[in-house]
Amino acid sequence: MxxxxxxxxxxxxxxxxxxxxxxxxxGERIRLIDFDAARIFKEGKESDTKLLGTKGxxxxxxxxxxxxxxxxxxxxxxxxxxxxxxxxCDGRLKKILDKCTELDPKNRFQNVDELKLALTADEPRxxxxxxxxxxxxxxIFLSMCRR
Length: 147
What we know:
By secondary structure, the protein is mainly α. It has helices at 2-10, 70-85, 91-100, 112-120, 124-145, and strands at residues 13-14, 23-26, 29-32, 39-40. The protein has one domain (2-145): Orthogonal Bundle (Transferase(Phosphotransferase), domain 1).
């Protein structure tokens, strides 16, 4: 997800609706879908013109408290990962996801490269364990949604 978001953010595209139901698991890849709420980031704007997003996943700035930017997607990704991991979200991973979901964008990871570095900075076995938990949980959640 970090790699995919990086590509979007490099094009100044903010997805603005990251949540489990907007992800499709294909093999070992997670694909982001539903770009209806996406927008192009415009430098110098104080707020978005349309207030869109899913309550519970969208950050405060998406509901009229500022302009959305790449940190808004990081917030939504953090909420999504917390939702999918449930009780498995503890320790170092909890600290990372708590930083993703800070109310003030200045206190979040400033870009997905920072987030990815934090997620992968641990020893390789822990990284693989986190990835496996996310993929398994996402697969279970997505299969339940399709029923």
